[in-house]
Amino acid sequence: MKRRTFLRAGAAGVAGAMAGAGGLLAWSPRAHAATVTRTLYITEGFTTQPDGVDVYARSFADADNRLQVPGAPFIVQEGDTVSVTIVNTLGTTHSFVIPGMVDSGPIAGGETRTVSFTADRVGSHLYHDGENAPYNRLVGLHGGFAVMPSGSGDELYAGSPTFRKQYTWVMTEIDPAWHERVRNGRTPNTAYTPRYFTINGRSMRVPGHPDYGNPDIDAGYAPDTRLSGAIGDRSLVRILNAGMAMHSVHFHANHVEWLARNGQPRADVWRKDTLMLPNDMGSLDVIYPFEPPPDAWPPVTTGYYPMHLHDEMTQTAGGGFYQFGLATTIAFK
Amino acid sequence: MFQYLEKYRKEGRKGSGGSSGACYVYPDAPATPGIVTPDVTFERSVYMNGSVTMDDGNSVRVWGFTEGGMMAGQFPSPAMRVTEGQIVHTVFSNNGMMWLHTIHHHGIEPSTENDGVGHYSFDVDGTYTYQWKAAHAGTYFYHCHTNTVLHAEMGMYGALIIDPPEGPGTLYAGGPSYDVEAVWACDEFDSSWHSLDWDAGTCGADVGLNDLNPDYFLITGVDGAQSALTDPRVAVSMNRGQRLLVRYINAGYLPQRITFGGLSAEVHGSDGRPFPRPVAVTSLTTHSAERYDCIFAPSRAGTYEVTVEYLDWVDGSVLGVARTRIEVA
Ligand SMILES: [Cu+2]
Ligand SMILES: [Cu+2]
After folding, report:
1. Which DSSP letter does residue B197 get?
2. Helices marked H in B60-202 — which ranges?
3. Do A319 and B206 touch (CB under 8 A)?
C-alpha cells in the first residue's frame, strides 16, 4: 500500500525544523548583505488531525524524508541574495513563488532547480507553489519568508515601532475532500468546506487530552506559535494566511499594535484586540506588547490567555471538538 | 497562580470521547482572588429557552443571560454600562444547572481567572464573581466562552460600554461628544444550529459546527429583513444639528460590510481604543468581534437607509442583508 511509504509529520520532523531557530525566529542584523543558501525538498505524506483522521499533504521540507507543513520559515535581510534549490521528489509539477520577488516556473517531477533572487521587499511574505493554483498551496506547499530592513534587528520596516522577539504564524484551513482529490491527481469538485484549522501546521489541545502540552502536537505549546514573555517583551507577530477564508484574529490580555496589512504599513498605528486577516495569502503584522493586562484588579503581571480566531467555526475539528482549532497560548511569565 | 492553573489541567473532564455527554469542560466556582468592594455590580444568570420571531413568522431558539433571577430572557442580553476607573463585579450564577457557561468580557483584559475562558480557568458551576477594572472607555461586548462556537451563535452576548469620566455623551476622555446613541450588534443565524444541546460536539461528534450557512440576518436582536428598518431598538430618529454615535459591533462569525446610506461617518476609535486621527468613511468592512465607534453629524434632513451585508468568508459574496434607518428631521 502506497500510503505506508508516505511520510508522517511527527516529533522528529518538527523538532528538526526548530533546530537553530530556538523556537521563535532569532535574528542578528548584519552591516552588509549576504548570500543565503537553502535547499527545500518537495515531499508528501499525511498529517493526523485532532479527531484522528489522517489527511494527505505536500510540503517544502528541509530534508527528503520529512513532511513539514508549513515549510521552514526564512528570515533574511534586505538586499541579501537568496539562493534556493528546490528538489522535487514527487511525480507532479510544482514551483517556488514569492509574489514580487521570485517565480521558479514549473519544476517537473523528479527535477531539481536553483533560483536566485534579491530580497528587496522588506516585510512578511508567503512562499508557495504557484502550480495547480490554489490547490498545491492549500495542501501544504507554503511557508513564511521574512525580510528584515537593512541593518536592523528590531523593526518590521525602517522606522517602525520596535520589538524584542518575533514570530511567524502561518494559518490555514483543511478541507480533507480537497486534499484527497489532489492526492489522486484530480481537481476538487465540491464546495470548499474546511474541517480543520491550523497555525504553523498544528491545532490546539486542552487539559484532559493526551496530547495536551506536547509541543510537537499542541499549538498551545509549540514554541514557534506560543507567545511567551515577561512584561516588556514586545513581540512582532507576522500573521500569514495560506488558506482561502478571511479570518478574525483575537488576542486576549493585551491589545496589539497594528503595523501593516498585506505588507502595507498603516498610516496610523491602531491598537486593536480583534483584526481581520485577509484571505488568499493576505497578511497582518502586529506587535503584542506584553504590558500588564490593563483591566486586572488586583493588578497582575503573570497569567495564561488564548489567541484564537473569532470566526468560531475555526475553533473546531471535524465538525465538533470545540477548542481543538486554530488557537495558541499567550503566557505572561 | 501556577499551582492554581495546574489544578484545572488535571481535572479537565475528559468524558468518553464518544458522541454524548460533555468533554473537555472544567466545572468550578472558586473564590475570586483579591476580592474587594466593587464600584458597580451586575448580576447575571442564564436562560436557554428563549426565542426570536423572525419576519417570515418562524421562531428561532436563543440562549442568553438574564439580569439577576428574572426568568424571561431578552436577546441580546442586557447591556452593562460602567465608568472608566470603576471596579466591576459581574456576579454570574449558574447553580444546580445541567449546563456550563462563562462570561468573557470581550476586549476587557483582566487576570486569567476573570477572563472567563473555560480551558484556561473554569466553566462556572455555581456562582463566580468576575472582578475587573474598567481601564479604557469605549465599546465592548460580553459573551459566553464555553463551547463558544455554539453558545455565542445561540445569542449569549450583550453590549458592554465604558463611559469616560465625563459620562455618557462623550466617547472617551477629552474625546468627541454625541447627543444620540445607538448600539448596532450585527449577527447572522444559521437556524439549523439552534436545536443543538449545550455540549454538542465537545466529545468529538461531527455536529457541523465547522460550516455556518446563515439564513437570518439581525441587528441588535431584530430581524434585518424588515423589522429593523423601524424597530425603535435599532432605527434612529434625530434632528439636524445633533450628533449621533453608532457603536457598531460585529457580533456574528462572518465578515460584514456596513454602508451608511450616503452619510459619512467619522470613526473615532475601535475595540475600546481611540484612533490617533479619526477617519471619514461611507462604509466599513469588518470581521467577527470588531467594534467601531462612528459619529454622524448630518446636515440635511432625510431618511438614510443603512445596509449590513453579511459576506461569505471565502469569496466575499453577499449571503444576506440587514437594513435599518437613520431618520433626520
Ligand atoms: Cu455558554
Ligand atoms: Cu469574543
Report:
1. -
2. 148-151
3. yes
Q: What is the tens place of the pLDDT at every residue in B172-202?
A: 999 999 999 999 999 999 999 999 999 999 9
Where b means 16+ CB within 10 Å and e means fewer, B187-219 reads bbbbbebbebbbbbbbbbbbbbbbbbebebbbb
Phi, psi dihedral angles at A295 (to 5 degrees): -105, 10
Parallel, antiparallel, or unpaired: how do β-strands A303-309 and A247-251 relate?
antiparallel
Please state whether the predicted TM-score (pTM) of the whole model is above 0.90.
Answer: yes
C-alpha B271 to ligand 2 mean position (Å): 11
* Phi and psi at residue B200, to the nearest 5°: -55, 130
Asked whether B116 and B105 are in contact (CB, 8 A), the reply is yes
Last residue of a domain, one of A152, A186, A216: A152
A6 φ, ψ to 5°?
-70, 155
Q: Give the separation between CA B106 and CA A252, rounded to whole angstroms.
A: 8
Ligand 1: centre distance to CA A129 (Å): 42
Ligand 1 center from residue B124 Cα (angstroms): 10
Residues of chain A positioned with their CB less than 8 A from the CB of B277: 268
Q: What are the cell numbers at B265?
A: 461617518
Whether A86 and A226 share a structural domain: no
Burial per residue of A224-251, b for 16 or more beta-carbon CB atoms within 10 angstroms, e otherwise: bbbbbbeeebbbbbbbbbbbbbbbbbbb
Q: Is the pLDDT of residue A126 over 70?
A: yes
> Going from the N-terminus, what domains does chain B have, and what CATH number goes with each?
2-163 (2.60.40.420), 180-328 (2.60.40.420)
Give the integer Cα–Cα distance in Å for B16 and B22. 9
- State yes or no: cis peptide before A298, omega within 30 of 0: yes
Cβ-defined contact of A269 to B273 (cutoff 8 Å): no
Backbone angles phi and psi of B5, in degrees to 5: -70, -35
